[in-house]
Amino acid sequence: MSRIRTVLPCLLLLLILAVPAAAAPELVYLRVEPEQGPAFTAADLDLVAEVPGGFLALLDDGDLARLRAWGLPHEVLATDDPTTTVLVQYDAPGGHEPTRLPADHAVLFRGEAFTVVRVPTAALDGLMCLHDIQRVFRRPLRFVDRPWRGPVATSREADPAVAEMVDTVDEAWLQTQVLTLEDFGTRHSSRPEGAQAAAWLRDQFLAYGYLDVTFQDFDGNNDNVVCIKPGAVQPDRYVVIGGHFDSTSGNTAVAPGADDNATGTVGVLAAARAMAGHEFEYSVVFLCFSGEEQGLLGSQAWASQAADQGLDIVGAIIMDMLAYRAAGDAADIDIVSNGTSQPLRDLVDAAAADYVPGQVVVTGSLPFGASSDHASFWNNGYRAVLFFEDSGSYSPYIHTSSDVVGLSANDFAFMNRNVRTAVASVATLARPFRVAIAHTPLPHTSDLGPFLVEATILAAGELDPASLQLHYRTGGAFTTVALAPTGIPGGYAASIAAQAPGVEVAYYLSAGDTEGHLATSPDLAPDHLHGFRTGVAPVLVDDVETDLGWTLGQPGDTATTGQWIWADPVGTTYQPEDDHTPAPGVLCFVTGNSFPGDAPGAADVDGGFTTLVSPVFDLAGADWALVSYWRYYVLETTLDDVFTVDISSDGGGTWSSLETVTATEGWTEVGHELDPSLVPFTDQMRLRFRASDTGGGSLVEALVDDVFIASTTGDLTAAEPPAADLSLGAFPNPFNPATTLRYALPRAGWAEIRVFDAAGRLVARPLAGRRPAGPGTVAWQADQLASGVYLVVLGLDGQDLRSTKLTLVR
Length: 810
Known about the structure:
Layout: H1 2-18, E1 26-30, H2 37-42, E2 46-51, E3 54-59, H3 61-70, E4 74-79, E5 84-90, E6 106-111, E7 114-120, E8 133-136, H4 160-167, H5 171-182, H6 192-207, E9 212-216, E10 224-229, E11 234-244, H7 258-275, E12 282-289, H8 297-308, E13 312-319, E14 332-336, H9 342-355, E15 360-363, H10 374-379, E16 384-388, H11 412-430, E17 435-438, E18 451-459, E19 469-473, E20 479-482, E21 484-485, E22 491-496, E23 504-512, E24 518-521, E25 530-533, E26 537-542, E27 551-552, E28 564-567, E29 588-591, E30 609-613, E31 624-636, E32 643-648, E33 656-661, E34 665-674, E35 686-692, E36 699-712, E37 727-731, E38 738-745, E39 749-756, E40 762-771, E41 774-781, E42 788-796, E43 799-808
Parallel strand pairs: 11-12, 11-13, 13-16, 14-15
Antiparallel strand pairs: 1-3, 1-4, 2-3, 5-7, 5-8, 6-7, 9-10, 10-12, 14-16, 17-18, 18-22, 19-20, 19-23, 21-22, 23-24, 23-25, 26-36, 27-30, 28-29, 29-36, 30-35, 31-34, 31-36, 32-33, 32-35, 37-38, 38-41, 39-40, 39-42, 42-43
């Protein structure tokens, strides 16, 4: 027995030694367009940096095999070495010397206007330089793919409260604060003086009256300083203003860093000071980053943590170097942005025009990630812009002992205008809170009314009861109805009168306080309005779980692979694993299925086009119709194909276009209100979906699910409101994490149960499908949701009938 005990460990050791260690990944230059980046991260390729003409990626042998199979141009630069750091050095702007690299650096690649080099990690200190060096981290980029990245709302007119905040920014105060930070001697992220500066910044936030002020310890460097001002209406939406407080030079013990970046840090303090006495609808995060000079370490740590937590960040304003102006240089502020952040840039332009007379805002340009902390937000999928003194003629004294007030930070009148612009932008973005209206717009409905309109109305002061109004119209002048309290804190309601079938109702809500501050829902009403139609009757409701008569393929189709099938989709690199219909639904229409592990293009559309045609549906006699569906479309590699959706009034003889899709999109709901003057309404209507690969060999996948067609006819009996014999409840409630939803329907039809979070976002759809009249139950498990109160809504044939609240307690 003792011998066996001796032999077995030896055998195990031999087996362990016989298993080869995982090969180090290769650093690869991948030549693709920037818009293709999200697709490659979805394909589990670790893109680690964006560079001119493509990306740098860390890939294993399997990844490289996929690139070769896709036929994508790429170049293997070197095997990854964790003891070294990869840098991208760009051609330096005119008048600036390139950063001097260590003698033992290795050139991995020379491209147009940039070079990829590798240096010993120990040689990094003091190397990072704003104008020409980008550090490449061993972590994947994120891309903007969150549904809350909608437009950034701006004010219709200047807000006196924002103007008041802007007026608190004082030139002499700014200079005094910059001198205070300079006097630390150095704020290098590894030095004790840097930690002392962080403590001083914390004390300033506390002195302004903020309570939530913390240090973020992200690595061995000095901590980030984080100050949060909670929002009064939607505290789970965040606006960020930030800048790095650390400094550097060839001698880290002497790094005054006046312009780089005491000026940006003081800009953050100025915003916190100006906004302290005001309330905002959204939360505001004031951030002072450490470790920027070592490669955006502090901002990357905070932004990546925010992304991991799913924080809804409306936008980030970052400031770096605000007070140097070269002789003869125009006193304009450069704004560095990207395509995704353009709405934020537009807001900055508007804020400057409204609140800083004479301020000139121009477009700045810094090479890719060789810039400042805004890049950390871009890399984590958030909108951000950088305020920067002049991207072509910035201070030549940065990263030296000469970065001091008077020589480097030499124009505080210029800095004053720049900071005022930043304060105006952040305050506008965070929405000063006086009166706010939260309302979920009414959907198209089979009901004829009356229609209950509910809202939550909050005010910083005292609401004026006479101002709480609902305004609606059906083509003429507005009818105004007073909103009455519902008994729920902040709850108000009013009704829209009953209407004939097919009527389009437009409406908005307004509220004000006793000081004359007004709010509307939607913003900018009455120029923008909510709207819905009455008497909407379902014509075709298809969750694709049963065969309702769709036609897979048509004579003349030319695709050799990837033809339409009705199936449970098989997840691959580009095709999703799940259909759109919530469980227990699994089926949808998909352009071919391959097997798990197959190459990405094993069953995509190749060689031509494939067609999916709906059964005939009847719109004869309708005066209005809605067609909606969910689609998923992938177009990668060669971006020269389209996905088309068409409609026919003659059973498929002739077709009119509804939409043409030219870019990759995940599951997306698309709705079309049909115009009978363009598309005659008959009893021979059909839809057609066509996916094609007719160009240069694209990778094409398409899926269609959950088709809904409805109409109005003017027939009063076709849209009778449902009877009142219905119910909705749950047991247990509170629950963790599972509960059973119980409901009763007054008639058979398309039933839905939807779950919304406190911010009004749809988070689950436990029920969606045809159900008989009478009682029913559905089990729901909320594994991925946080503790809180959720609204559960029961709907039948497109009309919301009942709602109840559930409490999830973790």
